Amino acid sequence: MTLHLPFRHRRAVSAIWLALAMTSGGAVAKSPADAEDGRALPPEVRNALQRAQLPLSSLSVVVHDASTGQRVLERQASQPVNPASLMKVLTTAAALDRLGPAWAWSTPVWLRGSVQGGVLEGDLHIQGRGDPGLNQERLWLLLRRVQQLGVREIRGDIVLDQSAFAVPTADAAAFDGEPLRPYNVGPAALLLNLRSQIYSFVPDPAGHRALVLVEPPLAGQQVDRSVPLAPGPCGDWRGALKAEFEPLRTRFSGSYASSCGELNWPVADPDPASFDARLLRGLWRDMGGTLTGTVRSGPPPAGMPPSFEFSSRPLLDTVRDINKFSNNVMAQQLFLTLALQAAPGAPATMDSARENLRTWLQSRLGDEAADIVVDNGSGLSRENRISARLLAQLLLQSYDSPVMSELMSSLPISGVDGTLRRSRATPGRAHMKTGSLRDVAGVAGYVLSNSGRRYVLVAIVNHAQAGGARPALDALVQWTLRDAPLR
Q: What is the DSSP string of 371-434?
């Protein structure tokens, strides 16, 4: 496949080959050790890696001038590495390109039966189409629309259609043994509130206790509504609570330090298979509704148009949530949605989603994309592989695309928000996705330099001690924004 680059990038490629042919000066170091990897690492980056006891060989890095495409730093750039959550850049870039930032999910709803005197004599059907944003507030709005159509009592069932995604039931403990972490929730065509709850702990010093609040409400669930206050530092406040999470019972047999103030604890439901039914029953009841039947799975009514279709927020809002906060579940929903939209007559599978993303990558990166290993769209995987060079090429192409501003604005801002809010790089000068796993640390995105130049920076560490690489990654950002590549 021929790779078609914008003119200024084709010109930059020629400039790079010219620089490689030169015997002195330019951006390529002369030492044999760096001949194939490009310029030597900046001293502050080498020192940060050494302090973290990370070998230089653990770092893959590429820096390009975003306006010209000129390479200014490159080491081990062709080596396939695990990108962790940098994989979300591929998924969200593909979504913005293929669907557009204003695209929205649609969730069809049917009132099957007559409605008289506030009673639906029949079933309420909801068909999932992959919307990752059906949280408590959005679901309330959907059910409120049902009530506005005159329904207060459902004398039938609430029937949920999950057939748009054909994915196996996920083992929430399979990846890291943490089944109650919300990031381990599996995808579903109809995914309500990310199948998670938030427990809030509010100190009540007068009552010598902390109040326990929980949202959303689940039918049949019993929760300890208070826990004793304790003196001392906050520390491991979750461990001190001695929590036990069961499908219908949540207990806190420990205590909560008053110095913690108010804190929130998001928890994935221990029984995700029944979560949707318990949530719908609980929320419908809290809205004053009555359900005489059950919540069950089933197809929508054949040959009957939906009573209404509930639209999601624009895709761009979801892309921001995915990238700013590295939301794995939303990324997986989007990954499967891309496959569903590409072949709407068939359910999306993990295999079809992988093939769909690989096809898009090949259309953008040419035959080199064949080296990319796509296991999933979130990066919560030990199998995903991409080189720093190819990821940088994708960011360069995105910089020239009609959705450049949307993709860039979705990335965390250094020292300001999202997963970069604690970055020690100069605040506000870098828009970069972060990636973290037990043995991976990385950043990928755009850096605005002191001269006003914009650089593409991709840096990925694969090593057992990768958790200590953050100072080195911050040092790379600082080096880039100082226009050190031009010196």
A: G-B-S-SSS--SS-BB-HHHHHHHHHHHHTSTTHHHHHHHS-BTTTSGGGTT--SPTTSEEEEE
CATH architecture of the domain formed by 105-312: 3-Layer(bba) Sandwich (3.50)
pLDDT value for 485: 72
Q: Which residues of 25-39 are buried (b: 16+ CB within 10 A; e: fewer)?
A: ebbbbeeeeeeebbb
Give pTM, 2 decimals.
0.91
Measure the CA–CA gap between 182 and 262, rounded to whole angstroms.
Answer: 20
Q: Give 134-143 pLDDT, tens digit per residue.
A: 999 999 999 9
Q: What is the pLDDT of residues 275-324, one digit of tens each?
A: 999 999 999 999 999 999 999 999 999 999 999 999 999 999 999 999 99
Q: Collapse the DSSP code of 28 into the 3-class scheme (helix H, G, I; strand E, B; otherwise coil) and give the result.
A: coil
| Residue 356 near residue 339 (C-beta atoms within 8 A) | yes
448: left (phi over 0), alpha (psi -120 to 50) or beta: beta
pLDDT category at 40 given cuts 50, 70, 90 is confident
Any idea which fold 7-101+316-486 has?
Beta-lactamase (3.40.710)
What lies within 8 Å, CB to CB, of 195 at 6+ separation is 185, 188, 268, 269, 272, 275, 276
Task: For residue range 199-222, list pLDDT tens digits in order.
Answer: 999 999 999 999 999 999 999 999
Amino acid at site 111: L
- The 3 state secondary structure assigned to 244-301 is EECCCEEEECCCEEHHHCCEEEEEECCCHHHHHHHHHHHHHHHCCCEECCCEEECCCC
Cross-strand bridge partners of residue 434:
443
Tell me the average pLDDT across 120-136: 98
Domain ranges of the chain: 7-101+316-486, 105-312
For residue 439, give Cα distances in angstroms to 134, 442, 472: 33, 10, 15
pLDDT at 395 over 60: yes
- Asked if the domains at 7-101+316-486 and 105-312 fall in one CATH topology, the answer is no
With 50 as the cut, is the pLDDT of residue 12 above it?
no
CA gap 331, 184 in Å, rounded: 12
Instruction: For tokens 């695990």, name the residue.
Output: 82
Runs of H (alpha helix) within 25-77: 43-51
Q: Side-chain half-sphere of 369: how many Cα atoms within 13 Å?
A: 21
Tell me the residue type at 37: D
Q: Which residue has the higher pLDDT, 14 or 295?
A: 295
Q: Helix crossing, 87-99 with 388-399: angle to 10°?
A: 30
Average pLDDT of span 42-60? 96
Q: Strands 256-257 and 226-230: what pairing? A: parallel
In this predicted structure, the answer to whether residue 470 has a pLDDT above a threshold of 80 is yes
Radius of gyration of the chain (CA): 25
